[in-house]
Amino acid sequence: MIGSYPLILVVNASLPVKSVEELIEYAKARPNNVNYGATGSLGQLASEYFNQQAGTKFLHIPYKSSGDFVNAVLSNEVTMALSDTPPLSGHVRAGKLRALAITSASRHRAWPDVPTMAEAGLPDFVVELWNGFFVPADTPAPIVHKLHGEIARVIALTDVRERLQGLGIDPSGMPGEEFAKIISADIARWTAVARAANIKAN
Question: What does the longest C-alpha to C-alpha distance in the chain come to?
Answer without folding.
Answer: 58
